[in-house]
Amino acid sequence: MGRIPRIDIGNQFYHVINRANARLSIFNKDKDYIAFEKIIEEAKDRYSMRILAYCIMPNHWHFVLHPKEDGDLNLFMQWLTLTHTQRWHAHYHSVGYGHLYQGRYKSFLIQNDQYLLTACKYVESNPVRAKLTRRAKDWQWSSLWRREDGSTEQKEILFSWPIKIPTDYLESIDRPQVEKELEFIRESVNKSKPFGSDTWLDKIVKKFGLEMTLRKPGRPKNGT
Known about the structure:
224 residues, alpha+beta, Alpha-Beta Plaits, 9 helices, 11% strand, globular, disordered C terminus
């Protein structure tokens, strides 16, 4: 089955991911992460992007975004990746040595309910699953660290979630997520498929004219 068409509709929720070319590490030291977060701040101000969650890993990154207008997602992501590529090559004196990223970013829609919470948890728990830290809140290069321990200025990059954050969020995020839950999120990431309930998926397919086969057997009723 081919990938579904890229959607760039305003006031929707998206999980966005991109990886380094050949999955090589592009964030090798603190200054690399700091430089990328500076670009995130610039891109957010330039395009008024609502950033709900993000996580920067050594060779890839994730975002959960809520763009305001049609086309804003692509404008934000294009500027972010192009600017990062240019500055990274300039810093490492590697201009002309090939692509920094493996290709264009991948994105998929997220249903605004428990599925959105699950997607944010999936993004912010990445360092724990990768065994880079025992507690997700200790990974400095993420929205979770900024939300919990960042300065007032650092927190300004983040937009409030439209759903309530559970009181046990910090504890639950460090526990291994249910394997079936991860299976459907990974399927969304691998195939750029919307992440939500069967009913919502049917509506999304019809609304945006997406040609896709919904894998209904075994799909969870909610995101947690």
